[in-house]
Amino acid sequence: MTALRLGVIGGGHLGRIHAKLAKSNDQFELVAVADPSPESCRVCEEQFALETTHDYRELMDSIDAAVVASPTVSHYEVTSQLLRAGVHCLVEKPLATTPDQAQRLVQIANSHACVLQVGHVERFNPIWTTAQNSLGTPKFIEATRAGVYSGRSTDIGVVMDLMIHDLDLILSVEHSPVRDIRASGIALLGSHEDIAEARIEFESGCIANLRASRVATGPVRHMRIYSSSGLSDLDFSSDKVRFVRPSNQVVARAAALDELSVADRMQAKQRIFEDLLQGEELPVPARNAILDEHNDFALSIRTGCAPSVTGADGARAVEVAARIVECVNHHAWDGEHSRAWRIGALATEEPRILPMPSERAGMHPTRRAG
Asked: Which of 211, 247, 213 is nearest to 229 (CA)?
């Protein structure tokens, strides 16, 4: 088997992880890491013994594939040039900053017969792969993803940075169109939202509630999926999957505990999770999700089969995430009485000294001005 010549575009935290794994993977021959920052190149060279270059375009004639781990704002420019040069691409999430850019990357990949895979690595997380066989048809989903401030991905908000992980997982099992989105969020440390929540209603009737924060005091990565077959409780932080299956008595609406005496209810409550809601913890194998992602990328290139996370998957996640961000930026914190400075993620308690032109004209502002 001839190794695929690979370039890693972006020498930051995530790019170095990709490079180290690829360097030890027989599927690839790591050619170099490309990063315009002299400091990033120095770290790659001195700490990880990686070859580097400052301009990714210098690699295009000498590589078969690339991992794009540069800042999100550069994804479209970098990936579009690589694809047009016939280079297969694994692009870190989010695929692009706008739905239009994401769709254009899918079209470019198709027209140049290149693999376009998106780095939604949670699809390869053994927690997720373990739970998939028990999911059934989802009807209600709760997802919370929070982390301490890392100083990375400051070119995007928490929706595109963290929430999109859970959003992609949800979209991978819920394929019906989105009917409605409600969302709010607030920026604390910059110009993008750092905390956000969203409620998504799908045409199938499925509801998903998502929460994300990148200024939390500790990590939380938790998802609950209520489906036709039961409850799947996924704790990504502790590597645990618990599945709760309702008994036939519960399914038939015959578990009328509210009709029992107080004494009988107190006795019944001791055995709810043995008799009525039967739970089990599923065994989770130890696997490296990024390594599995790399192997999936290589398999797609070699066989021509679609990767597990296609460019179209990544584009759909960007499209829904962009709608969530739009809702966040138009949320009126005081309802119909909100003023311009009380709308969106950059809302503030401080009023403007002079009224906005729309207010002088008696118009209600529909978006944050300034």
From this structure: 247
Neighbours of 104 (CB within 10 A): 16
Average pLDDT, the chain: 90
Q: Crossing angle, helix 311-330 and helix 164-173, to 10 degrees?
A: 120
Identify residue 196 by its one-letter amino acid code. Answer: A
Strand partners, 235: 222, 240
Does residue 308 sit in helix, strand or coil?
coil
φ/ψ of residue 114, rounded to 5: -110, 150
Burial of 228 (C-beta count, 10 Å sphere; 0-12/13-18/19+): exposed
Contact 75, 96 (CB under 8 A): yes
Q: 220 pLDDT band (50/70/90 cuts)?
A: very high
SS3 26: coil
Q: What is the C-alpha separation between 224 and 226, in angstroms, rounded?
A: 7
Strand stretches in 99-215, DSSP E: 116-119, 138-146, 178-186, 195-202, 207-213
On whether residue 331 sits in a domain, the answer given is no
Report if residue 93 sits inside a domain.
yes
The residue among 236, 212, 238 whose CA lies nearest residue 224 is 236
pLDDT digits (tens, 9 = 90+) for 133-144: 888 899 999 999
User: Mind listing the pLDDT tens digit for each residue in 277-320?
Assistant: 778 888 999 999 999 999 999 999 999 999 999 999 999 999 99
- Cβ pair 60, 83 in contact under 8 A: no
Name the domain count of the chain.
Answer: 1
The domain that contains 85 carries what CATH number?
A: 3.40.50.720
Residue burial 319-329, b: 16+ Cβ < 10 Å; e: rest = bbbbbbbebbb
* 54 confidence band (pLDDT: 50, 70, 90): very high
Averaged pLDDT, 310-336: 95
Report the alpha-carbon distance of residue 354 to residue 308 in Å, rounded.
54
DSSP 352: P
**What is the domain range of residue 301?**
4-119+289-307
pLDDT tens, residue by residue, 58-85: 999 999 999 999 999 999 999 999 999 9
Count the Cβ atoms, other than its own, within 10 Å of residue 212: 30
How long, in residues, is the chain? 370
Cα 57 from chain centroid (whole Å):
28
